[in-house]
Design goal:
The protein is built from three helices and four strands. With 94 residues, it is an alpha+beta fold. The chain has one domain: 2-Layer Sandwich (Alpha-Beta Plaits). Strands 1-2-4-3 form a four-stranded antiparallel beta sheet. A hairpin with a 4-residue loop joins strand 1 and strand 2. The longest helix is centred in the middle third of the chain and has 12 residues. The radius of gyration is 15 Å and the shape is flat. It starts with a strand and ends with a helix.
């Protein structure tokens, strides 16, 4: 897999970099976790501070466009990112 940054925007108010990147791969579209590692390496940041918003790929293409947020620290990420919602089936079990 190879990733290159196509556009970066510093958002100082929210404490993050908004990154657009182009990703090429050889097999299936990579998972969010794999892309998070690549973006963290690209931006020289900690993996915990990277949030993948979108991975856009065309059917059959071996490339994708990625949109991600790279936060300055964990507190900024925790402040501005929503926590995953618990599914109703899991709530019923509790």
């Amino acid at each position: 897999m190879n990733i290159t940054s196509t556009n970066q925007k510093q958002n100082t108010l929210l404490g993050r970099n908004e990154v657009e990147a182009h990703l090429t791969f050889e097999t299936v579209t990579p998972t969010n976790a794999e892309v998070r590692q690549l973006v963290a390496q690209l931006m020289k940041s900690d993996e915990k501070n990277v949030v993948i918003k979108h991975i856009y790929s065309d059917f059959g293409a071996r490339e994708a466009d990625v949109f991600a947020y790279v936060y300055n620290d964990e507190t900024a990420r925790a402040t501005y990112e929503q926590k995953p919602k618990v599914k109703k089936a899991e709530e019923a079990k509790k």
